[in-house]
Design a protein that fits this description.
heterodimer, A: alpha/beta, two-stranded antiparallel ribbon, 13 strands, about 30% helix, B: Butyryl-Coa Dehydrogenase, subunit A, domain 1, Butyryl-CoA Dehydrogenase, subunit A, domain 2, Butyryl-CoA Dehydrogenase, subunit A, domain 3, 3 domains, 4-stranded mixed sheet, about 55% helix
Amino acid sequence: MKIIVCIKQVPDTNEVTIDPDTNTLVRTGIPVIINPDDKSGIEAALTLRGKIPGSTVTVVSMGPPQAEMALREALSMGCDDAVLISGRQFGGSDTLATSTIIAAALKKIGFDLIFTGRQAIDGDTAQVGPQIAEHLGIPQVSYVEEITPETDSLVVLRQFEDRYHRLRVKLPCLLTAIKDLAEPRFMTVEGIVDADEKQIRIMDYEALSDVLDPKTIGLKGSPTNVVRSFTKEPKSQGAVLKGLTADEAVDAIMARLHESHLV
Amino acid sequence: MDFKLSKSQQLSQELFRRFAETEIRPLARDMDEAEEYSMELVQKMQALGFFGIPYPKKYGGAGADTLTYALCMEEVSKVDASTGITISVHTSLCCTCIHDYGTEEQKQEFLRPLVDGRKVGCFSLTEPNAGSDASGLQTSAVLDGDEYIINGAKVFTTNSGFADTFIVFAVTDKAMGSEGISAFIVPRETPGLTVSANIPRMGIRAASNCGVSFENMRVPAKNRLKREGLGFEIAMHALDGGRIGIGAQAVGIAQGAFNEAFKYVKERKQFGRPINAFQNTRFTLAGMQTQIDAARLLVWRAAKMKDDGEEYGPAAAMCKLFASETANEVTRLAVQLLGGYGFSREYPVERMMRDAKITEIYEGTSEVMKMVIYGSLKAK
């Protein structure tokens, strides 16, 4: 089975701050990491590869040349090969244009199963994965927490806010991974040394120009306009209960949670 | 000249850092208090290749370089110096002896399981009456047919509490002095080998460090490294490389203590402001980091020289001398910046200060480092 994992290199939002003047992320000097949900996808793909003989895992990222480090990390975890989709013409792409470009690349690379993360921690849109599936005309299951391979299909557990769906999905398909899907393994020192000897395949605009309409990529192909980005403020202090014993406090809090149908 | 790490070195550093933060940090304090190293942690590190970093893949190693190994030592020691010495003694001392002096057969039999993560090694040189003067060993090895009979006692053998493979140094010809010492590979299960309880110590308390004694211990002659009389040279060679690891460990201890202090001074308020608003705090931290950076560069230089096949002994001695002094100075200042809390066992800087001391002593004291450095001096 040819398994693809789409990953994004993102700033580590644990370390990120918002510039109060421009309301944008301060990116300088911030460590970059593989988006956590995507990393779960890598782990799930490597686990599946172990279960299905003859499988390979190809990791794919769209981004600037620096995204190579994210791909090298994935190779060091044990992925077989890596593709970097990178080109000036792709700059400024919103989620629609991004998914258009990635889908075009995936058609060239070939696939049986595609993983993406549920969403990236820098944009939180959760759009690119599902859009790739739509462009490719294949079934998709988002928020996947568990996978059981069968012949020509997978049984997956989809996490919803209040319930689970157990679905059987035919291959080829696309799954979006959540953190609960798999705890990513560490790289190994030997894996890092091996990855160093591997070439990362670069797909630029030229490589995809026969299947891409220039009007659908980059800024031109991006209908999204960001009106404003801002840091969430706490809404209010909430209710403050005073002068209660521990037991009374527990009862009072439970009563409120019941009132709000939270428990 | 460029001071940048290669891509694979950067990724390795990231791996070591993340592993140290998520897997070692939660255990460091408890292991120190219990004076016992977690074997589960050893196994996790073996699985990721931490015990075979600078050894070739053809023997089961990771195939990385000395600088990558130094990065590992720094990152794990930032969080827990006991982890640093556990890896270092295995890698720099035990495995070096077999890799650099062993026959192909010895490498396949003994080096492979050490570097591929199945076994742990130790290095038994120091004796109650032979420390800096390592040529004064009293442990004897007498040839009897195709076996040596070894008798004697060692002290402060790191990792010996759980190590599978011992490198034992013993006198085969007393009249020859340092040229009468030979080195042997000894499996733990060899009859006559006894390991004492852990020796209570001031620092690196989680590491295993015991006395080892040999009573009519029979070791096959084929387990001798090279010829008789080469043991002292083998030991000195291993220690030369080991000093890069200890230098890196010391840099790690210092950087770990700096990090704790740097975080603390932003949060701690006295006289109505965070203490990092005071120039004394700022100057202290600036000096600490400058010293750490200088020490790190000395470590990297020695590691690079070793990787490039240059004579690195004096450079390794310099990096250990300077880095170990830096670790002691920086940890002392970190405790001072944290004040009473720094002295309390609630914060890790007191442990770091205790751990730092041994870096000026083991694998050659600072005084021995100066002897080595002096021997290489010339006007420039």
